[in-house]
Write a structure and sequence with these properties.
The complex is a heterotrimer of chains A (about 375), B (about 550) and C (about 400).
Chain A: E1 5-11, H1 15-25, E2 31-35, H2 40-43, E3 48-49, H3 50-56, H4 60-76, E4 80-82, E5 88-91, E6 97-104, H5 105-108, E7 117-123, H6 131-144, E8 150-156, H7 168-177, H8 179-192, E9 198-202, H9 211-221, E10 224-228, H10 235-250, E11 254-257, E12 261-267, E13 270-276, E14 283-292, H11 296-301, E15 327-329, H12 343-360
Parallel strand pairs in A: 1-2, 1-14, 2-11, 7-8, 7-9, 9-10, 14-15
Antiparallel strand pairs in A: 3-6, 4-6, 5-6, 12-13, 13-14
Helix pairs in contact in A: 1-10, 1-12, 4-10, 4-12, 8-9
Chain B: E1 2-3, E2 6-9, H1 13-24, E3 29-32, E4 48-49, H2 60-76, E5 81-82, E6 86-90, H3 96-109, E7 115-117, H4 118-124, E8 134-138, E9 141-143, H5 145-157, E10 162-164, E11 167-175, E12 178-186, E13 192-196, E14 199-202, H6 208-214, E15 221-231, E16 239-242, E17 251-255, E18 258-262, E19 266-268, H7 278-291, E20 300-311, E21 328-332, H8 333-337, E22 342-347, H9 353-368, H10 387-396, H11 399-409, H12 413-422, E23 429-431, E24 436-437, H13 438-445, H14 456-463, H15 475-485, H16 491-509, H17 516-537
Parallel strand pairs in B: 1-13, 2-3, 2-14, 3-10, 6-16, 14-22
Antiparallel strand pairs in B: 4-9, 5-9, 6-8, 7-8, 11-12, 12-13, 15-18, 15-19, 15-20, 16-17, 17-18, 21-22, 23-24
Chain C: H1 16-20, H2 22-26, H3 33-46, H4 63-67, H5 74-84, H6 89-98, H7 101-108, H8 112-120, H9 122-132, E1 160-164, H10 166-171, H11 174-186, E2 190-193, H12 201-205, H13 209-228, E3 232-235, H14 238-251, H15 256-267, E4 269-271, H16 272-281, E5 294-298, H17 302-305, H18 312-318, E6 323-327, H19 346-363, E7 367-369, H20 373-382, E8 386-388, H21 390-399
Parallel strand pairs in C: 1-2, 1-3, 3-4, 5-6, 5-7, 7-8
Chain lengths: ~375, ~550, ~400
């Protein structure tokens, strides 16, 4: 019988929420995910900085969580690459380098390569990116980190009208839909960068493209391509979010998008009742277990009373007791408002909360 | 070595006003400002063009000055003024006796106010409290302080005057009891320069004391800090004053798309190193909430502070910040300190800048034997945009952009339109909150701009780029790229400049405790956090 | 202060709204919801003139609202801009009619056969194209005289609903109203079909804010009275449903008394599928379905997604034994009510629909099922596949017939 009753309901579609939903769905349960936006990892750079990993502590649990998240991303067609030990130097918006521990493959490939020449390619009319600026800066900063990679600047133009200025959203969507555009794009790149070992581009290679499709594109071009971070909207980040969502949908997770949970009702021996602020009267979702992973919004749902969590990922009252046995918290709400705890914590806590939530299901009668 | 008749130290409203006035009298002058235009109090105030209403009860003379200067400034610089008018609102907690006192004083002085019932006041300003008792109208307005200073400077340059920003006076050359020149240093390059002159005017506001000290003279200036809160969108159409004895947070000024709440009054040791405390912010918000209920829920976008430089002659040393007269003082150091060729103009407020300049220039003209009267009250700072230019703008640009660019550039918009007609991609809107096109950006960065820019913040002052909700996170980056593309900066300089810029923008948001600006700031940190660190650590010079 | 006064503060300029806007991705000059919504609103508050012809291209699909991480009511702000927008005289004339499907319906159903014949004639369409820029590419839906309804006689003790049909069902497919009553009956509800005015969505879309407000007033008076009499409201046209749940409130927020009525209506309006899903939650859904072997593809209209109720039709139809159903999930169809009929917007409309058409072809269903009338028109226009209303499918599953 179809209904709005679920084994696990996850609140929040950031990396914590998506990982939690994935972990619960992995147990073949009926999972729902309710969220407003795409999560703050999309607004930023969808990567885990090396120092965040260090701060999170190199535990076995964290490795397990990251491995799970990576596997999920791989199956979703948007693999995440990792270097937990030192992190990899990846370019920043200002052409410097920072150590990154985990990032989508397309961004990962932008790392400097020893003894190589990299072509930094801009698009005529895409004014939020300047290939000369980027190439100059990367050359300067590559020396600083002791890399011998050489960057040269190039520009290509498209025959298609993507607006003045060119919108990265239009280009990315066209990349997804139109094989003839991809062919034109590949050909332009081939012509512009003969001689370079690999190419760096602002993130444009599709909003929903799979790793396979990107690899195909790279083959057409004839060399590897790394994507560079840009001003929002970050196409590679959106791609990760879309692919993960697509994967989770195919795995049976039901998405409720657009409206926040405005109230949660916890009852001792029955499922948790979530009231979603949909237009008109609220919509009710019921979850045997619920994972709250929507950052500060989750904190306010708990009435600002959450004083941390226990080992079982239950939120704690000020007195130190778990608020409920079937309620879990994950992600940046555990930060106590001091800002981004970093994606590593999101992944770890999301994984743990999702797994524990899945294990708790079935404790109550009255499904 | 440069030589001129007068050197003006200080590029705020007063200094700029003096430069213009002198140029109209045919006296050659050069202005030196250690930072960018309006670096001190001028650039850090509400931008209130007083109607006089805030002085009617306590200081009739100041009120009269305001009435007269208000009219003059609206006539000579209409493009700098939002002549939206104001209200003096009586809140439930305010003293009714003061309200009546205000009314009779206003009538006596001739403010031109009308008395409104509470309903009438709320009809004009729906966001004031339900329990207000009534209000008076006033001729208050909002001045874009940067535009006003620029208008004076550019008009003066048009008549042969000169000015240098990022030029800090390091010493004053005195021989035989006469000031004959200044040494100054370019704060960005470190280069030293000298100017020979007949007269030096110390118009440096909060720094008047330290500048005077260079000449071995004591000019006691009290630095009184006021903090101001910028709210993301306009809650009011008119200036809203609280009709009571002037105190904290009793003024909400609409300023372009935002509104500014303030202010406080806290004595400081000097004009620099200003910070604001969470208690101060909380206090201001609480009071602001009395004026406009629900204001606490509005998005606080930025906090800044400035000092009122108050002239404190020894006799009044003990009085509090608001008690000391906001009147100004012209100090003829030849007469009072035996140093000729040096005068200081101190105190005052933005609204009376022109008057202060006039008084100063009268003195200077007399000393230089130039027999020309002041005409700044009659000569417009800039010609109005003519119809054909306006039609040209409407043809090439969306309506909203036209309104803004014409206000900012006047007839000079033709330069931008020429560029856009040749290269249509220059019509791209780079700062969407303030409708700044790429064409305008390149003009401001370029050589034909009479007021050269060195930093992204300078661009901001001339165009309001970065003054919207994103606080430069997006448009500042694009401006940086534009500066690189027009060879203003090398890639390395551009990156350093942007890091310094965004770091400053962050500072203005760092004391905000709650609300959406925190999310905005978090996004900005996420994008640039690593870079700001890298540039800080790379040992490159922190340009301002 | 009004709560919506501060909604503009929520915008972080992240541009996520731009990434889901169907028009931005196909039209190179369309500025996008971020600029036409919160940025123009901020300038309006400053007193700057901000008219832009691009507001006409906003579909009102609400995808920007749904994706915004901070619930900025982007499309509402664009609707304000639409109301202030000045159109060319030709478009003004045309859009005056488009804003009034209720009026068009009344006139067209006087002698529906004549209307239908006239609207299908090539010369007539050529003239419409030339004079008021209605594209000749599209078929108008056929008008039908409504059949008189027998009053509800039994089951007064059952929960009672009033069905808000919307102009399409009222003037083009009155049989669907009967089917809704039938479905509701099978699930233990009594339903009365209301003779209502247009919900006002086309009025808002075409910038006729005053008309929308007056329609809202009429509808609220009637519907609030129904709610007071103990009935709840059910819709199946997702645009009408969205309007009843949200639009009345924002159009009438200045008027305290009506705002109260609007709230009442919003609280008591249910999409039919949503209602049946709630029954399913309680284990009360009538699952007495006959086996129905058919391969279907479901398209969720934008205004269904914006109601935030998940995808109940997809799940309900999936419960019918024998039904195989794909969730197309391929974005906006591009029709957006009257938008796709406008000649100058036809190409944009079709460009937007391409992803959906491709998805339909890939699914290769016997029918595409969707509850939005104009989505149906667009899908039939852009693919070779016939469409059905989910109500028809479900009823057939109950009744056991295998043909349309």
């Amino acid at each position: 019988m179809e209904s709005n009753r679920y084994d696990v309901v996850v609140v929040g579609a950031g990396i914590a929420g998506l990982t939690a939903a994935g972990a619960a769905a992995h147990q073949n349960l009926k999972v729902a995910l309710v969220a407003t936006g795409p999560g703050s990892f999309v607004l930023g750079t969808s990567s885990v900085k090396a120092h965040e990993l260090l701060e999170a502590g190199q535990t076995h649990e964290l490795s397990e969580a990251i491995a799970f998240c990576r596997e999920m991303a791989r199956l979703a067609g948007c693999p995440l690459e990792e270097d937990a030990a030192d992190g990899r130097w990846l370019p920043t918006l200002l052409g410097a380098f920072q150590r990154v521990a985990l990032a989508p493959r397309a961004l990962w490939q932008a790392a400097p390569r020893e003894g190589a020449s990299a072509a930094v390619v801009g698009i005529h009319g895409l004014t939020t990116f300047d290939e000369n600026f980027m190439a100059d800066r990367l050359n300067e900063n590559a020396r600083r980190i002791g890399s011998s990679c050489i960057y040269t600047a190039h520009q290509i133009s498209f025959t298609r009208d993507f607006g003045i200025p060119v919108s990265s959203v239009r280009v990315a969507k066209c990349f997804d839909r139109d094989p003839s555009f991809r062919a034109e794009f590949a050909s332009a790149l081939r012509k512009a960068v003969s001689g370079a070992q690999y190419i760096l581009l602002p993130g444009l290679l599709g909003m929903n493209s799979s790793a396979q499709q990107i690899a195909e594109f790279e083959r057409e071009v004839g060399c590897a391509i790394g994507e560079l971070p840009t001003l929002p909207p970050s196409i590679p980040s959106l791609r990760l979010s879309q692919r993960l969502e697509g994967y989770l949908r195919r795995a049976g997770v039901e998405f409720f998008r657009g409206y926040p949970v405005e109230q949660i009702e916890i009852h001792e021996d029955s499922p948790i009742r979530l009231q979603v602020a949909s237009p008109g009267h609220p919509m009710i979702l019921r979850g045997e277990s619920v994972v709250l992973a929507s950052g500060q919004h989750s904190a306010s749902l708990l009435g600002g009373q959450c004083a941390g969590r226990d080992q079982q990922m239950h939120p704690l009252t000020a007195a130190g007791s778990a608020m409920a046995q079937n309620l879990f918290v994950a992600g940046s709400l555990l930060d106590n408002g001091s800002g981004n705890s970093g994606e590593a914590i999101e992944i770890l806590t999301g994984y743990r909360a999702g797994t524990l939530a899945a294990a708790t299901r079935g404790c109550y009668a009255g499904r | 070595m440069e030589s001129t008749q007068v050197v003006i130290i200080g590029g705020g409203a007063t200094g700029a006003g003096i430069l213009w006035d002198l140029s109209l009298r045919g006296i050659s002058a050069t202005l030196l400002e250690q930072g960018d235009i309006a670096n001190g109090a001028t650039g850090r105030c509400h931008g209130l063009l007083h109607s006089g209403g805030r002085y009617v009860v306590k200081d009739a003379e100041a009120a009269r000055e305001c009435v007269s200067e208000n009219r003059i400034i609206k006539a000579i610089a209409p493009h700098c003024v939002e002549a939206v008018g104001g209200l003096f609102v009586q809140c439930a907690e305010d003293d009714p006796a003061y309200f009546e006192k205000w009314w009779s004083a206003a009538e006596t002085i001739g403010l031109g106010s009308k008395r409104l019932s509470a309903e009438e006041a709320r009809a004009l300003e729906p966001n004031v409290g339900k329990d207000i008792r009534g209000a008076f109208t006033s001729e208050d307005g909002h001045v874009d302080v940067f535009r006003l200073v620029l208008a004076n400077l550019e008009a003066a340059v048009g008549r042969g005057a000169r000015f240098h920003t990022y030029s800090k006076v390091t010493s004053i050359r005195i021989t035989d009891g006469r000031a004959r020149g200044v040494h100054y240093r370019d704060t960005r390059t470190g280069e030293e320069h000298e100017i020979a002159c007949e007269m030096i005017i110390n118009a440096s506001g909060g720094w008047a004391q330290s500048v005077a000290a260079l000449a071995g003279i004591e000019v006691p200036v009290r630095c009184d800090k006021g903090s101001l809160l910028v709210l993301n969108h306009r809650l009011n159409t008119r200036i809203i004053n609280r009709c009571r004895k002037p105190g904290d947070a009793d003024l909400l000024v609409p300023a372009g798309p935002v509104c500014i709440l303030g202010t406080s009054s806290i004595q400081m040791p000097g004009p620099e190193g200003l910070t604001v405390s969470p208690e101060e912010i909380d206090h201001l918000l609480e009071l602001g909430d009395e004026l406009i209920p629900g204001l606490r829920e509005a998005r606080l976008m930025r906090i800044f502070c400035g000092v009122r430089p108050l002239y404190v002659p020894k006799a009044k040393g003990g009085a509090g910040g608001r008690e000391i007269s906001r009147g100004y003082a012209l100090l003829d150091h030849e007469a009072q300190d035996g140093l000729s060729g040096f005068i200081s103009i101190v105190g005052g407020k933005l609204t009376t800048y022109r008057l202060m300049a006039a008084v100063t220039c009268d003195c200077v003209a007399k000393k230089l034997g130039v027999n020309v009267e002041c005409t700044t009250d009659k000569v417009p700072l800039r010609p109005a945009v003519d119809q054909s230019t306006h039609q040209r703008s409407l043809h090439s640009l969306p309506q909203a952009v036209t309104e803004k660019i014409e206000t900012r550039l006047g007839q000079a918009v033709n330069h931008v339109l020429d560029a856009i007609e040749a290269h249509p991609e220059l019509a791209e809107i780079v700062c969407e909150c303030e409708m700044v096109t790429r064409g305008e950006l390149e003009y401001v960065l370029g050589k034909s701009n009479p007021s050269p820019t060195q930093t992204i913040a300078d661009i901001g002052r001339r165009t309001r780029l970065g003054y919207g909700p994103c606080q430069g996170t997006f448009c500042g980056y694009k401006a940086m790229l534009a500066g690189f593309q027009t060879d203003h900066w090398t890639a390395s300089e551009a990156a350093t400049e942007f890091s310094a810029y965004i770091h400053e923008r962050w500072k203005g948001q760092s004391f905000i405790q709650q609300g959406k600006q925190l999310d905005q700031l978090s996004l900005s940190h996420d994008l640039y956090g690593a870079d700001v660190e890298v540039c800080a650590n790379s040992g490159e010079q922190d340009g301002k | 202060m009004r709560a919506d006064d501060f909604a503009i503060d929520n915008c972080l300029k992240c541009s996520i709204c731009n990434t889901v806007c169907p028009v931005l991705s196909v039209h190179p000059q369309y500025p996008g919801p971020k600029q036409l919504g919160p940025e123009m609103e901020r300038l309006r508050r400053e007193g700057i003139h901000t008219d832009s012809k691009w507001v006409e291209y906003c579909l009102g699909c609400h995808r920007c609202d749904v994706v915004c991480p901070n619930q900025v009511p982007v499309s509402e702000m664009i609707a304000v801009a639409k109301a202030e927008h000045v159109k060319t005289p030709v478009h003004q004339l045309r859009d005056w009619w488009f804003a009034r499907p209720g009026l068009l319906g009344e006139l067209s159903t006087i002698v529906p056969s004549v209307t239908n014949f006239g609207l299908s004639m090539k010369p007539a369409r050529a003239l419409m194209s030339k004079l008021i820029q209605i594209t000749p590419e599209r078929k108008f839906p056929a008008y039908t005289k409504p059949s008189p309804r027998k009053a509800e006689t039994n089951g007064k003790e059952r929960p009672q609903f009033v069905f808000f049909p919307g102009c399409f069902i009222r003037y083009n497919r009155p049989d669907l109203a009967e089917k809704v009553v039938n479905l509701m009956d099978r699930n233990g509800f009594g339903t009365e079909v209301a003779a209502t005015d247009c919900c006002g969505v086309p009025a808002v879309a075409n910038g006729a804010a005053d008309l929308a407000r007056s329609l809202a007033r009429t509808n609220i008076k009637a519907l609030a009275a129904q709610v007071d009499a103990g009935r709840r409201i059910v819709t199946t046209c997702s645009s009408c449903g969205h309007m009843l749940k949200t639009g009345f409130g924002s159009l009438l927020s200045e008027d305290k008394e009506l705002a109260e009525g609007a709230r009442k209506v919003a609280d008591n309006t249910f999409d039919l599928a949503e209602l049946l899903m709630m029954q399913s939650d309680e284990g009360k859904l009538n699952t007495d379905f006959q086996k129905t072997d058919v391969h279907l593809a479901y398209h969720a209209p934008c205004h269904q997604k914006s109601q935030g109720t998940g995808r109940p039709w997809y799940h309900l139809l999936g419960q019918v034994p024998g039904v195989s159903i794909d969730d197309l999930d391929a974005g906006c169809c591009g029709m957006s009510g009257t938008f796709g009929f406008k000649e100058e917007k036809y190409d944009v409309s079709m460009a937007i629909g391409q992803d959906l058409f491709a998805s339909v072809r890939a699914s290769d269903p016997q029918f595409v099922v969707t509850e939005c009338a104009t989505c149906q028109m667009q899908i039939e226009h852009g693919t070779a596949v016939n469409t059905m209303h989910p109500v028809e499918v479900l009823l057939q599953a109950y009744e056991g017939r295998n043909s349309k």
